[in-house]
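User: I'll paste a sequence; please echo it back and then give the predicted structure.

Assistant: Echoing your sequence first, then the prediction.
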Amino acid sequence: MESPDILAALRETTSSRHAVLDRAMPLAQDGATLGHYRAHLTLLRHWLAPIEAWQARFADGPQDPALLPPAPHLPSIDADLADPVLPAHPDPGSNHVPTPPNWFAAEDAAYRWGVSYVIEGSRLGGIVLYRRLAERLAPHPLRYLHGDGVPPGPRWQQFLRVLREHVRSPAAIAAACAGAADAFDSLIALQRGAAIGSVQVAA
């Protein structure tokens, strides 16, 4: 019997969720401004901060530095939010993002491989957005989208290689898909909550 393919299973699990976010995130707006970028970063920070704190508790699986060097997202997000080019929010009290959920329902390595699949894949989406928005949003350096100038392709290929090596059984693949689904669903919930909270955007 042919072994199930982890990458195909993850893509099947996440494709519809990915499409939802592609339409809903602040930078999906036509004519996105630096205000939209600030809203985008704020939302992602609320999402990623508890994930990265949770991931830091582990040293195996996708958190094993021998398999994949650590590369947290928060430093570049914080640097971009602090950049003086970024406009201040017109009403900071209205820039509401709901409290993210505690991470996570499971702690096994396979589940964490699924979460990491979503986090690592976001680097590819970031460079696509950078190419589309760099000129429009200049002179902001868009560090987060640009990955601080480090091309995401080699790291992504390394991630896929070790993912396939370490997530092979049907049970592990199911756990990884659950982790990927939870990662996407938590960001979708945050985005919807922020939209209900009427996040204002300054140009």
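Helices lie at 6-24, 34-55, 74-82, 109-133, 143-146, 153-166, 170-196. Residues 91-96, 198-203 have pLDDT under 50 and may be disordered.
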